[in-house]
Amino acid sequence: MAPDATHVVIAHDGDIVEARRKGRELAQRIGFSGSDLTLIATAISEIARNIVVYADRGEISLSEADNGGRRGIIVVARDEGPGIPDIERAMRDGYSTGNSLGLGLPGARRLMDDFEIMSTVGQGTTVTMRKWKR
Amino acid sequence: MSGVGVVIDVSALDVMDSFATRTLRGIAQTTRLRGTDTVIVGIQPEVAFSMVQLGLTLDGIATALDLEEGRARLQRRADDEASRGT
Prior knowledge:
heterodimer; A: alpha+beta; Heat Shock Protein 90; 5-stranded antiparallel β-sheet; 5 strands; 39% helix; B: alpha/beta; Transcription Regulator spoIIAA; 3-stranded parallel β-sheet; 3 strands; elongated
């Protein structure tokens, strides 16, 4: 993680708003504009909501990415919650154990360019998402 | 004129995620059970684009561009029902 990452503790509904506000701010500084800012903020909102609903608390880190001159934003969401037993299923549209629409994880993946998820039952979940400037 | 429907203006929202969508659907379904229609108005262009990418729909819920259009829509529906005598 880059040393200049912004960290937002996620434990309550209000923290979700804070995370997407900071994400939008950073994305704007990186040079994203218009609809990309909304896509990034929405993806952050989805994974932050997942932390509140499934893990109670966690953290979202926001930082700038540089891939050989191509700039982007990295969003990492970490929690030490129950973990996801079946990631393949959780990534499928419409699947939810939490009485939601089941679009959070697959939806966030569609909004961003790169999406990785690592989860260990009983230990927690880490989601890493990146979006690159066009 | 009283009680022809509910208009929810979401123009202040910079994000409509699946949670917000589910909440709106719940409100619309609840008011429908109480015999009242709901119209969602003011979804911002970027927000609409993002909702489509995310796969979110407001199935069965009326939407309109802004408050005026939303009110007009509810009024038309109320007038239609009145003329049919329902």
